[in-house]
Every structure is written in structure tokens, then in C-alpha cells.
Amino acid sequence: MAHFPPRIHVLLASQAPVGLVIRRGPSKRVATLLWDRDRDTFHLGQWLKGRIYERRSDISPDGKHVLYFAMNGKWQSESRGAWTAIARVPYLKAIAFFPKGDCWHGGGLWTGKTKYWLNGCYFHAESHCPSSLQRDTQYQPEGGCGGECLSVYYPRLLRDGWVWVDRIKVRQWQDKDIFEKPMGHGWRLRKIAHAEVGAPVGKGCYWDEHELVGPDATIACPSWEWAELDHKRLVWATAGKLYAAQVGKDGLTHETVLFDFNDMVFEALEAPY
Predict the structure, then answer these.
(1) What is the DSSP string of 38-85?
(2) 254 — alpha (psi -120 to 50), left (phi > 0) or beta?
(3) Cα–chain-centroid distance for residue 44?
(4) What is the gyration radius of the CA atoms in the chain, in angstroms?
(5) Against a cut of 0.70, is the pTM above it?
(6) Which residues have a Cβ under 8 Å from the Cβ of 21 and sit 6 or more positions away?
(7) Would you kindly state where each structural domain of the chain is located, as residue ranges?
(8) In whole angstroms, what is the distance from residue 247 CA to residue 60 CA?
(9) Tens digits of per-residue pLDDT, 34-51?
(10) Are 56 and 67 in contact (CB under 8 A)?
């Protein structure tokens, strides 16, 4: 059986130097970690025996809470096998819990520090939620596609400064959406978001690759599964590691590995609340 490095996806808070790393691997084990982006230190939160749908998840602007969609397949349990939850970063223990029962829609977005929107809210079971958090029932996300991951992921990209450029139809059940974001010095970060049935081995049906587009050249980065701007630097994930580099007129400089997630193994951890 082929061995693949863990998949890495990161949620960056817009108003605090905080990130939440979602590390998946093996396929039914996922961990969350707090990333202090000022110090580039990492703190393990919790593991889940199941799947977190990172493209249907979001971190609050102040970096204090995460809203995520998860599935463990225990359809007769309180969670109904798939659920949306809100937890305190970097943990997964729910302070707000919305059982779903299937993997259609689910998850959501933050519309403020304490206001959130549920994707397909009418299909969630009502459950507990602290009074300090308020559901935003007026929000209408733009740019969503379908009823799965792209119904949250594309609106999140647009909200976070990405510009949709084009949709390329490759064949039946295979599309590519192109997003771009300026990096400075004439360079742009291009995200190629794939949606397909029969994805390459080691990929899910939704997966990304990236390119650096400069004034005179385009640099393909097909192994980058996640990439984003962190103020004036570029950060990306590939081969189970998180990298950073500065952006200059000639491209990337001072490349460094921030963290290697490959050797992590499941631990049963409790949240401190």
C-alpha cells in the first residue's frame, strides 16, 4: 500500500496572529494545532477519530474559535454521524453542537468575532450554543458551488481577498476554478482548485495546486496543497511540512521550514474546558 504524507490545511485569523492547522493522516485521524504566527510556534490541540472537512471550516477573525464540520460515521450516536461544531482554538470539544446526520452541506463561516453562519442551517438539529455566540441568519454567501465543500470554501476564499479568475471544464465531473491573489513586487499567487470524481491517488475529490505568476515567468508548484499570504510573506504546505518565504522582485527568498508534521501520531487528549 502506498504511503502518503499527512495532508495539511490551515485557517488564518484575519485580526490576530493566529492560525489553526488541520492535519489529516492516516485518512481517519485528524489533529488540530495552534500556530502562533508571531513566534512560529505550534501547540497541539486535540485529535479526532474521523474526518474534518477543512474546506467547510473557518476560524473566527480574532482567532479564538473554530467552526468545523466533521464525520465519524456513527449514525446512531448523539452526533448522528456527521455534525457542525464550534470549539475554542485549538481544541475540538464543542461549545456549540449541531448534529447533521449526513454530509450534504454542513459547516459554515464566521461573519464577525462572535457571529457565525451555518451552511444548510435548516438541515442541522437544534442543539446547545452559548449566548456569547450568535447565529447570523441574514448572511448570504457569494460564489458558492454545489452543496458540499465548495459551498463554503469558495465564499471563504473570496472573503479573504482571493479573486476568482476562471472556471475550466476539463471533462464531465472534472472542473478547475482559478483564483489569484497579489503578493507584491509584480507577483501573484494562483490557486487551482480541482473538483472531480476519480481524483489522483492520494487526493480527495476537492484538492488544490498552486502557481507563482510573475512579470516574466510562471512557476508551477503542483505539490503545494495549501498556500496563503501571511502579511508580507508567503506560507505553504507540502509533503507534510509547513514552509515560509519572503516575496521579492525575483520571487521567493529566505525559504524556511516552519514545522514538520510527518511524525505525529494519535493521542487521546482532553480539552482544558
Answers:
(1) TTTEEEEEEEEESEE-GGG-EE-TTSSEEEEEEE---TTSTTTTEEEE
(2) left
(3) 17
(4) 18
(5) yes
(6) 8, 9, 10, 32, 33, 34, 35, 42, 90, 242, 259, 261
(7) 7-260
(8) 27
(9) 999 999 999 999 999 999
(10) no
